[in-house]
Amino acid sequence: MTEPLLRAQGALGAGSDADSDTTPFPILWEPARIPHSPLLRPGTLRVGTLGPAGTTSMVALSRLGYRLAHLGGPVVEPVPYDSFEELLAAVGSRGGPAYALVPGAAECATRFFWSPRLRLDATFSSPTPEYGIASGPAGLREGILRLATLHETRRLVELLDGAEGGRGGYDIAWVPAESTIHAAQLVAEGRADAAVTNEPGRVAHRLEFQVSRPGVPMVWMVFGPAVLARPEGARPSTGSRP
Q1: pLDDT tens string 125-134
Q2: Domain at 131-214, CATH homologous superfamily
Q3: In the chain, which segments carry CATH 3.40.190.10?
Q4: What is the DSSP secondary-structure string of the chain?
Q5: What is the pLDDT of residues 133-143, one digit of tens each?
């Protein structure tokens, strides 16, 4: 079931224009979750994902928050984590966010599906920002190249094939990073020569793309509590559930 079936009457307010929504992606809702999902109720909702601000995950969460507000849902309060493993440990626990936003490309995404505390609530597709290999103004020097990157974005080293001289002139020394923003930060701090990062990371740390590629459509998954608390006055469901 997709979002047009769930649009609340008057949710946009008087004089609102649906065309003003700059991220008009559809949201696919897990049908058995619809009646009591906090994603569809006004209020404030804490959602955790990979941070800090500027990561591709935080960009997607901002878009999701805009979309939920457009549908008359809650105001999303982002809760950034240094890794998806930390998010998995925190979501649904005391003091942690009730919901998690995870990209389909995350290496540990399967663990969210199998967590006994969580259940998939919704999915949507939204493009990533531009990605590339960024460095300081001096550019890239042949020889040993300390390249900061997430494990998931290592394959983007292939972008160097399109650089002058190709990839053959570089001996890659991998520098582990926790996020695209962290990868760019490592370059700014002199702990790496270049980073696989996104456009927000490049801008935040004043780097320059030496090679880049457009963003790609990414599937994002919203995980919520395995058992939802029913709002007061809600009738218990009489239907069977698997």
Answers
A1: 988 999 999 9
A2: Periplasmic binding protein-like II (3.40.190.10)
A3: 22-128+218-225, 131-214
A4: -BGGGGPPTTTT-TT--GGG-S----EEE-GGGGGG-GGGSSSEEEEEEE-STTSHHHHHHHHHHHHHHHTT-PEEEEEEES-HHHHHHHTTSTTS-SEEEEETT-TTHHHHHH-TTEEEEEEEEEE---EEEEE-TT---SEEEEEEE-GGGGGGGGGGGGSTT-GGGEEEEEEE-SSHHHHHHHHHTTS-SEEEEEHHHHHHTT-EEEEEE---EEEEEEEEESSPPPPTTPPPP-S---
A5: 999 988 898 89
CATH of span 22-128+218-225: 3.40.190.10
What global pTM score does this model have?
Answer: 0.76
Give the pair of three-digit tokens for residue 83.
């890794």
Share of the chain above pLDDT 90, in %: 59
Q: What are phi and psi of 120, to 5 degrees?
A: -65, 130
